[in-house]
Design a protein that fits this description.
The chain has 532 residues and is α/β, with parallel strands linked by helices. The chain is rod-shaped and about 165 Å long. The strands form two sheets. Strands 5-12-11-6-10-7-9-8 form an eight-stranded mixed beta sheet, with helices on both faces.
């Protein structure tokens, strides 16, 4: 099956795919809403003092970037996890907590982040901040710089800064004196010299404090309790479930379509059996609970799309037999249940409504159906005509609600139907019947079940094959057609039965179709008798 046929077959499954996607999306959304929430909090740290250094050094910046990766690995080590569990009083273990935290370092900066997750947003933030503080406390030891030296430098910086401010204030006060004495001038000069010395010391201390801390870690953004949960995400889960459902449904449909061996359209009919498609009939909308006579759409639903399909089939049959008169038409199918009897009955009505005198003959002795469809007696029929001369064909045929249509049922079931059909008597009986009617439509058994149809095809002017798009496999279609060709039958073409109603929407939209409750056959017959 090519892509075009697969796409055409897929169209019929589109509503089912949409329903599956909607169900999956709703189920995922509802299911996600019932799951417990999980929150994530993140604290951001910086390695080194690249932001506050007076003279940033590229070498130290590169060292800080490389150290940030190391600090990211250390942030989730067991000692820090144990310390956080103890400080926060968490009811968990380091191994379980490790699965809920992760630290990452940026490749092109000295920043690293610590992310923690928990069902409680406040606890998630506390865990992230606890690990960040633990990493900060551990950073001097990891770098090799003693804490007392760092504290001494920081104290000296503070003391020197205070002295600079005091000397600067003293110089400002002495400079404001207009008539200074020699002693005052000496004090001012001494203060200015001391200020210069203090500033030099401060610069040296500041350079030491800022440039020799490439391994120092500082928190730049503490974690805060998040408002929105990161998991589950109902809308995202619903969207993903819907997409996955569509993909899965499409895959299943493609597999079903690929494995489907039935004949679906005219192109497949031509490719499979090399015959033209003379028409298509929509799938019957009649409930199974109703009587079989409701399948006579030509009588009960004359304005329906199905009735118009039979009229189209009638016209195409007339064109197909334009070179030779069509007086005996055999209707058959490859297998059982493909709608040959319904097609034969409605087609006979269509020809009768066109003004031709039509006789519908039921030649399916094994499973007759014409009598039940038209609600006529089956006590006398074709079998009586084939077995004796005591019954004339005029006594055997029965009228129907259609004035130009008569039916000949099978009659009592004979013990040897194949022999009766193959006898010379059968051709003689058909000759008698042909003298009284313009067209004889013969309903016959399935080709692959018995040989009756192949035998009957030799006395018919043309054969119409019925393929059901949901039942007739391509192999059965080939075998049935081959049986007719071996018998030398004149196969006019194929009618596709049970086609999707969507193929007939154009007619229904234009003509309106028939939506009203149909009349019964008794009502139709009564109205015609009164009009006569």
């Amino acid at each position: 099956m090519d892509l075009r046929h697969q796409l055409a077959a897929f169209r019929g499954y589109v509503p089912l795919v949409i329903v599956c996607a909607a169900i999956a999306a709703i189920a995922a959304y509802v299911g996600s809403g019932a799951l417990p929430r999980s929150y994530e909090a993140k604290s951001t740290l910086i390695v080194g003092q690249s932001l506050s250094a007076v003279n940033p050094d590229y070498g130290q910046l590169l060292a800080s970037q490389r150290l940030s990766t190391t600090y990211a690995d250390i942030a989730t080590t067991r000692p820090l996890l144990v310390d956080v569990i103890a400080k926060l009083g968490l009811a968990t273990t380091p191994d379980l907590l490790e699965k809920r935290v992760h630290a990452t370092a940026a490749l092109d900066s000295t920043l690293l982040s610590i992310t923690a997750s928990d069902r409680d947003p406040a606890v998630a933030a506390a865990i992230a901040n606890g690990l960040a503080e633990g990493l900060v406390n551990a950073s001097p030891t990891l770098g090799g710089q003693e804490a007392d030296i760092r504290a001494f430098v920081n104290n000296e910086l503070s003391a020197t800064q205070a002295q600079i401010e005091t000397v600067q204030a003293d110089i400002t006060r002495q400079a404001a004196i207009t008539n200074r004495t020699a002693a005052q001038e000496a004090q001012l000069s001494l203060a200015q010299g001391r200020l210069t010395t203090l500033r030099s010391s401060y610069v040296a201390l500041l350079a030491f404090a800022s440039n020799d801390v490439s391994n120092r870690v500082t928190i730049v953004e503490p974690a805060v309790a998040p408002v929105d949960a990161v998991w589950p995400r109902p809308l995202l889960n619903a969207a993903l479930a819907g997409v996955l459902a569509v993909l899965l449904a499409m895959f299943i449909v493609i597999v079903i379509t690929f494995l489907d061996d039935t004949v679906k359209d005219a192109d497949q009919v031509r490719d499979t059996v090399g015959l033209p498609t003379l028409g298509g009939v929509p799938r019957s909308a009649t409930p199974r609970s109703r009587a079989v006579n409701y399948l006579l759409v030509m009588l009960l639903y004359p304005r329906s799309a199905a009735s118009e399909a039979y009229r189209t089939l009638r016209t195409n049959l007339e064109f197909a037999a334009v070179d030779a008169p069509l007086e005996k038409l055999l209707v058959t199918s490859a297998g059982p249940g493909e709608g040959k009897t319904v097609t034969a009955a409605n087609l006979a009505i269509a020809f009768a409504q066109a003004g031709r005198r039509v006789l519908l003959v039921d030649a399916d002795f094994r499973k007759p159906g014409v009598d039940a469809m038209f609600r006529v007696s089956n006590s006398i029929g074709l079998s009586n005509l084939l077995r004796s001369d005591s019954t004339t064909w005029k006594n055997a045929v029965q009228p129907t609600e259609e004035a130009n249509l008569m039916v000949l049922t099978t009659g009592p079931q004979p013990p040897n139907p194949a022999e009766l059909i193959a006898s010379r008597r059968m051709a003689t009986v058909i000759g008698w019947l042909q003298a009284g009617y313009d067209l004889i439509v013969i309903d016959s058994p399935p080709l692959l079940v018995v040989t009756d149809s192949a035998i009957l095809s030799t006395i018919a002017d043309g054969v119409l094959l019925v393929f059901d798009v949901k039942r007739t496999g391509r192999d059965d279609a080939r075998r049935g057609t081959e049986a007719l060709r071996k018998a030398g039958a004149r196969v006019l073409g194929v009618v596709l039965n049970s086609q999707p109603a969507s193929d007939f929407t154009a007619y229904a939209a234009y003509y309106g179709g028939s939506t009203a409750e149909p009349e019964t056959l008794a009502t139709i017959a009564a109205s015609r008798e009164s009009s006569d």
